[in-house]
Specification:
The complex is a heterodimer of chains A (about 500) and B (about 350). Chain A has one domain. In chain A, about 75% of the residues lie in helices and about 0% in strands. Chain A is built from 21 helices and two strands. The radius of gyration of chain A is 22 Å and the shape is globular. Chain B is an alpha/beta fold and about 350 residues long. In chain B, helix 2 runs antiparallel to helix 10 (about 295-305). The chains are: A mainly alpha (about 500), B alpha/beta (about 350). Chains A and B meet through helix 3, helix 6, strand 1, helix 9 and helix 14 of A and helix 1, helix 2, strand 2, helix 3 and strand 6 of B. Chain B: Keywords: Signal.
Chain lengths: ~500, ~350
């Protein structure tokens, strides 16, 4: 009962006119931030901290903290809505969590279904946002304890499962997908090793100490690769531009998306709760789950709406889930939540076990404002779909320079180094060569993200167990993940071996 | 033909864009007219992502300077993350060495990164002009509330007996600050620091999570960050690395020295100028920073962030850095991690 009481108090805070305005501004800026590659939610939130501090300077501390966190959180989940737009339209992921959306979303756009893809992404994000919020309200405390149970061994097994599932991203050839996975893992070893502090493959070049930036690689492989391909293969872009048939998704689209959205939301929420796992991983897992359980896995990568609906729901749900460790434990699960935490601390509000007791109006005001913010986003995004979808009709000779500009601007805005611009170019050329020869590029990106996490957690776990490998099977959660991972690879092989007709990615 | 032309065009365009990036960063700075410094806006760099200690320090200084009107030009804060600060450090010491309009907020890693063998930053504090130390924080040794260990010496004895029984965790790589704070008392207690099991996490928050989840037996972290968990009763702090007892939540916590361990570690934060800063700019900033720490606005910032004030002027700060460099160097040598 008290929870509902608190929630109503929260709505009382969130429905004050200035807080409504803050939530609105936050989600609008967030959408813009999500659309532009490079300015991710992290830099978006960071840039706005001083602005909100000025805006709220006249208010009492607690009210000021509530208002600014409402705005900043709006930017955060607003970016999750907007992130899909450039992925779908331009094959340029705006955020790392939208990389997989590009796989099917861009194909849908190519077939003239950009409107459907964009709307389903917005609808999926809305549903996911609400589901994640319900989870946040009802399950915050037990889940935060569960998240703590996740030690290095459990993380290792979960990430390994993710890597085994990489087959879900394969194109025609599993072998080629595995080659790309290994290549991504190798790229992931560059930089200062977090466990031993030893610099690997850096050749004493400071710019390599931090490793290769994930976004640079992703934008290069996807967006620039596509640009080069268009130029070289379609001869200056007089190819017929796909007609946009309708903006709103059909009934069939909605029916096809309902289950992926639900699954993506739940999956994303639980992964979001785990500190360090994050929205990117959530969207990858969702995509691979959808492909795995689909009756028609061959259609993935060719414009299957489930490949948009699932991941887009998952990354939004993950941003809601990530609020749990932040608010209840004071442990930020991602870069963006770390900045949100910094913002709260600026107002002398310490997120952590005491937040809900010490500052209930801030915690519950934020939660209530997220309900409102999600609703605003849906209302805002649906008409915008019509506008955005027009972008696809821009002639290629204007569109390609725009994509190049956005890519370079975006990467420089994140990294501030010219090194990353050269890396971006190199990845663009590489992306073109790879996709021309049917090598899938998504496994590179996934392996680059997962590789260091798998390695670090494995070594942490082994340090804790004094080198005893049994730690991975004695922990029940870890064991479950390992069994699923093994099954993922082995079951299709066995079925194939026994002569059954199964859906696997056939070697060709 | 047309294809090749287009490709050339795109590649050229891309290179032009790439080149633009490298040329834009330094245009201001060489102003030579007297006593009119500063003529343009100033950039204060936090060589980390937003939200960390360097970032908060830079933002606090920028805010107080503009609120009090001490500096009439705007001070913008830029985040240049990478390599634990080493990436920007290289740029600051070379490309920006003459740029009077760029300052940097930094803390002990400026020494640690320069001294450690692995992931070494070739540039140290000597490649900058230290302007002032502003705040200090201390390290804390923390265990879970239901831990069987109730004092630092108990847990150190346990490590002495069987180093594999205790897992120490921290929020940074081995050889960096959290690790040093954690093994410093062990080292002074006569334990071979190389035998202490250290597990590094990405940031103090994850280290706390590992502690609460039972995946670490003790952690080393910033004293200012742990107060909230002490209040909620989730953890107990066994010792702090200060020379005198802290105030507030941690007032009952003994220092290393009280426990008979001759060790101390200060997490200071200060402001640095570029190596070849002009005398004019140098005098300007040393004066302004000295004035700033006296203002009420600065005191409010200190309180808001839970920082203890410790001001050292440029000269004292440089002497302090020299002394700290030796302390950290000795510890790294004991660990076999010195370059």
């Amino acid at each position: 009962m008290s929870t509902i009481q608190y929630l109503f108090d929260g709505f009382a805070v969130a429905l004050q006119w200035h807080n409504l305005l803050f939530a609105f501004i936050g989600v609008v800026i967030g959408t813009a931030v999500g659309v532009l590659p490079g300015i991710g939610p992290m830099s978006g939130v960071a840039l706005l901290i001083p602005v909100t501090a000025t805006l709220t300077s006249g208010m009492p501390t607690d009210a000021a903290a509530a208002s600014s966190i409402i705005l900043l959180a709006g930017v955060y989940y607003g970016a999750m809505y907007g992130g899909s737009t450039t992925s779908i339209l331009l094959n340029t992921p705006g955020e790392s969590s939208s990389v997989v959306t590009a796989l099917d979303g861009y194909q849908m756009a190519q077939k003239g279904r950009a409107g459907a893809a964009l709307s389903i992404a917005a609808i999926g994000s809305f549903v996911a946002g609400i589901i994640a919020l319900l989870g946040l309200v009802l399950l915050a405390k037990p889940l935060s304890n569960l998240a703590l149970e996740f030690g290095p061994a459990e993380y290792f097994s979960l990430m390994l499962l993710g890597l085994c599932a990489v087959s879900g991203l394969a194109g025609k050839s599993m072998t080629k997908a595995l080659m790309m996975t290994v290549f991504g893992l190798m790229l992931g070893t560059i930089g200062i090793d977090a466990v031993s502090g030893i610099a690997r493959f850096t050749y004493d070049i400071p710019v390599l100490y931090g490793g290769l930036e994930f976004l640079t690689i992703a934008v290069g492989l996807f967006a620039l690769g596509e640009v080069f391909k268009t130029i070289l293969e379609r001869d200056s872009g007089d190819a017929p531009i796909a007609k946009i048939n309708r903006i709103l998704p059909t009934k069939q689209d909605l029916k096809d998306s309902a289950k992926p959205i639900t699954r993506g939301s739940l999956l994303g929420f639980f992964i979001g709760v785990l500190p360090g796992a994050g929205a990117t991983l959530a969207s990858f897992f969702s995509y691979m789950t959808e492909k795995k359980i689909s009756k028609n896995p061959d259609s993935f990568g060719k414009g299957n709406i489930a490949g948009v609906a699932g991941p887009e729901s998952a990354n939004n749900a993950a941003s809601g889930g990530a609020m749990i460790p932040l608010l209840t434990l004071g442990i930020p699960g991602s870069g963006t939540t770390a900045i949100l935490m910094g913002a709260l601390i600026m107002y002398n509000v310490q997120p952590g076990p005491l937040l809900f007791d010490d500052h209930p109006e801030i915690a519950w005001g934020l939660i209530a404002s997220m309900f409102i913010g999600n609703l605003v986003l849906l209302i805002l995004n649906m008409p915008l779909v019509r506008v955005f979808a027009k972008i696809i009709q821009t002639p290629k000779k204007y569109l390609l320079p725009i994509i190049i500009t956005i890519s370079f601007f975006g990467v420089y805005a994140v990294q501030y180094t010219t090194f990353d611009l050269y890396l971006l170019l190199a990845c663009g050329v590489l992306g073109y060569l790879l996709s021309k020869n049917d090598y899938p590029v998504a496994p590179i990106v996934l392996a680059l993200v997962l590789g260091p996490m798998i390695e670090n957690n494995m070594r942490r776990a082994l340090t804790i167990s004094n080198g005893d490998w049994s730690i991975f099977v004695t922990s029940p959660l870890s064991l479950v993940f390992l069994i699923i991972a093994a099954a993922w690879i082995i079951v299709p092989l066995i079925l194939k071996f026994t002569g059954k007709k199964v859906i696997v990615n056939e070697e060709e | 033909m047309k294809k090749q032309f287009m490709l050339c065009f795109v590649l050229t365009l891309s290179f032009v864009l790439a080149a633009c990036g490298s040329n834009t960063s330094k245009t201001s700075g060489d102003g030579d007219s007297k006593s009119s410094y500063p003529e343009s806006n100033i950039v204060m760099v936090a060589p980390s992502g937003a939200g960390g200690g360097w970032d908060l320090t830079a933002r606090a200084v920028s805010k107080v300077m503009s609120e009090t009107g001490l500096v009439d030009k705007a001070i913008t804060v830029e985040n240049r993350a990478g390599g634990g600060g080493a990436v920007f450090m290289a740029e600051f010491a070379t490309k920006e060495a003459n740029n009077d309009y760029m300052l940097m907020a930094k803390s002990p890693p400026i020494l640690v990164n320069n001294l450690k063998a692995e992931g070494n930053s070739p540039y140290g504090y000597k490649d900058t002009k230290p302007l002032a130390q502003l705040t200090r924080d201390y390290g804390a040794i923390v265990v879970k509330a239901d831990s069987p260990y109730n004092s630092l010496t108990e847990i150190l004895d346990a490590i002495k007996e069987d180093p594999s029984s205790i897992t120490l965790a921290g929020g940074s790589a081995p050889g960096s600050m959290d690790h040093l704070i954690g093994i410093l008392p062990a080292f002074k207690y006569g334990i071979d620091p190389k035998t202490v099991k250290y597990v590094s996490y990405d940031g103090g928050g994850e280290a706390v999570a590992a502690l609460l989840g039972g995946n670490a037996d003790m952690i080393a972290t910033d004293a200012s960050a742990i107060g909230e968990y002490v209040k909620s009763g989730d953890v107990k702090v066994l010792a702090v690395s200060s020379t005198e007892r802290l105030t507030g939540v941690l007032e009952d916590v003994p220092t290393f020295q009280e426990l008979g361990i001759d060790a101390e570690f200060t997490i200071w934060r200060g402001i640095f100028g570029p190596k070849n800063m002009s005398d004019e700019a140098y005098e300007y900033w040393t004066k302004k920073l000295a004035e700033m720490v006296e203002t009420d606005e600065w005191k409010t910032e200190l309180e808001r962030n839970g920082w203890a004030s410790e001001y050292r002027d440029a000269e004292e700060f440089t002497a302090f850095l020299e002394e700290q460099e030796k302390v950290i160097g000795d510890l790294l040598k004991a660990l076999d991690m010195h370059k």
